[in-house]
Structure formats: structure tokens, C-alpha cells
Amino acid sequence: MAFEGLTERLQNAMGKLRRKGKITEKDLREAMREIRLALLEADVNFGVVKDFVKTVRERALGAEVLDSLTPAQQIVKIVDEELTKVMGKEAVPLNKAPHIPTIIMMVGLQGAGKTTTAGKLAYRLKKQAKARPLFIAADVYRPAAIEQLQTVAQQVDAPVFQLGTDVDPREIVKQGLAQAAEKKNDYVIIDTAGRLQIDEKLMQELADLKAIAQPNEILLTVDAMTGQNAVNVAESFNQQLDITGVVLTKLDGDTRGGAALSIRAVTGKPIKFTGQGEKLSELDVFHPDRMADRILG
Ligand code: GDP
């Protein structure tokens, strides 16, 4: 379960304040120190922690919270609101094209959960919007990648456009899009190549595919369990591709939660979904307010 340690430590800090009744500036300072350490230990980005603590402290001091009848309660409310804000305030829906098809380009490092998430998205779109998605298999560097996409596609009962591993991904995408137009698919989900690390060739290929497909959505999948590394990955993909959203996968296995709390503030791009397991149904819309409530426990 995500945020275990963070929840416990925040609750401790808030519990101390609650027991005090009247809260002095010194008490507040001590609580803020504990919150700061709790966030850092949860692997939240250093700059994000700094800004967060500063804002909470200023709000608590500014609005005569300390002199109020329920200071601890009000501080909890401020922390809740600021946690929500750090994660982006409101859920951001998937972009939709004005005319079909809506084109979604999946990007990410190998193993982050890109192909699984592509399947989860198709599952969701079919279920909720009765969509008729077409997958395009544009990862030509690992033969297993196409097979994996086909397996996922079979599970959700959606077609895959593929030309094997000997054709340039740019050509595959062009032909795939032509097929989608012909068959009137309303969604196209392009599964692009992942690499073990970010490299120039990968980025150039993705930039070319973006230029060709002009996607409505460039969704980056990052693995929550990799913490600040996920944030760094998000930052560099965003710099190079101007992504439209992030899917934070494996949140079910991430006990700290640092990536969830940092990505929006660092990249300016919303987390749109979280992956909470390996099953196709285990994709959730990311709601910052609900996540903040969950973190505060
Ligand atoms: P890709 O290389 O980025 O396409 O990654 P895959 O889709 O192959 O996923 C890598 C591994 O992570 C697979 O074993 C998936 O089942 C697993 N995985 C993907 N998303 C999640 C998730 O949200 N939670 C869990 N627990 N596992 C996931």
C-alpha cells in the first residue's frame, strides 16, 4: 500500500498538535520540521518539499490559525489542500480529438508498464465509451514486444496493426494510421519502443513519430517504485516531447509515494492515471484530492 510511512508520520505530527490545544509558533515550527522530514523520507523531490513546507507555514501563520479555536484541525486542512495542489488539484481527463481517431502515443522506458497500460487504456475505453481502438505495434527492437502487445490486444479484443520488426517504425505508424482511417477506428494507441535508459536515438525516433502521428495525447508511463528516478525520467521525456500526461504505474507496490507527489510540481504535467496492479482493470483515474485524503489517512 502506497504512502504507508508518510501517512503514519504525518498523523504523528498532526496528533501532537491536536493534543496541544493552544499551538505556539514553536509548536508549528516543530510540526513543519517533522512534515518536511516525512516528505523527504517518502522520496519527494527536494524543491517540492521546500515549497510545500514554506506555503503551509505561511498559510498557518497568516490566517490567524494559531489563535483560532481549532488550530490543529485547520492546519490539517491546510496540509490536505496543499497536498492536493501539489498533485494538480483536479483530475485531468484524457484528451479527445474533435474528429476520429483520437491518437494516443504511449512512451516510456522498458519495463515501466507501457504495453500493459496500453491494454488497460483500451479496456477502459471499450468498457466506458464502447470505443473501437486499434493498436499500432511500433516497438521493433524487441520481437517479444509485438507478441506481448498481441496478447494484451487479444485479451481486450482489439486489433493490432503490425509489420514485424524489419520495417521502420515511422513507416509502421503511417500505414497503421491509414488503416485506422479506413476502418474508422475511433482510437489509435501507438505502442512505441522502450529502452533501458533514455538515449538520443530513442528520443529522435519518438520525436519523428510524434511529427507523423500528431497525437492528441502523449502518455508517459513511469514506474512509481523507482521514486525520484521516475521524476527525472518524466522531466527529460517532457523536455524532449512535451508530453500531455503521465501514467504512474505500480503504485500498488510503491510504499513511499515520492513520485506521485513530485511529478506534477516538477514537470507541470498531470498524472492522468495510476496503475494499481497487473490486471487490465487495474487502472484508475488520478484524483489529487482523493490521493491527498488517502495520504493523510
Ligand atoms: P513495458 O516494457 O513498459 O511495456 O512494460 P510491461 O507492460 O511489459 O510491464 C512490465 C511489468 O510490470 C509486467 O510484468 C507488468 O505486468 C507489470 N506491471 C505493469 N503495470 C503494473 C502495475 O500497475 N502494477 C503492478 N504490480 N505491475 C504492473
Describe the overall structure:
With about 300 residues, the protein is α/β, with parallel strands linked by helices. It contains eleven helices and eight strands. It has helices at about 5-20, 25-40, 45-60, 70-85, 115-130, 145-155, 170-185, 200-215, 230-240, 260-265, 290-295, and strands at about 100-110, 135-140, 160, 185-190, 215-225, 245-250, 270-275, 285. It has an eight-stranded mixed beta sheet, with helices on both faces. α1 runs antiparallel to α2 (about 25-40) and α4 packs across α11 (about 290-295). It is elongated, with a radius of gyration of 22 Å. The model has no long low-confidence stretch (mean pLDDT about 95). It binds guanosine-5'-diphosphate.
SSE map:
Blueprint: H1 4-20, H2 25-41, H3 46-62, H4 71-86, E1 102-108, H5 114-129, E2 133-138, H6 143-156, E3 160-161, H7 169-183, E4 187-192, H8 200-213, E5 217-223, H9 228-241, E6 245-249, H10 258-267, E7 271-275, E8 283-285, H11 288-296
Parallel strand pairs: 1-4, 1-5, 2-3, 2-4, 5-6, 6-7
Antiparallel strand pairs: 7-8
Helix pairs in contact: 1-2, 1-4, 2-3, 3-4, 4-11, 5-6, 7-8, 9-10
GO molecular function: 7S RNA binding; GTP binding; GTPase activity
Binding site for GTP: 108-115, 191-195, 249-252
Catalytic activity: GTP + H2O = GDP + phosphate + H(+)
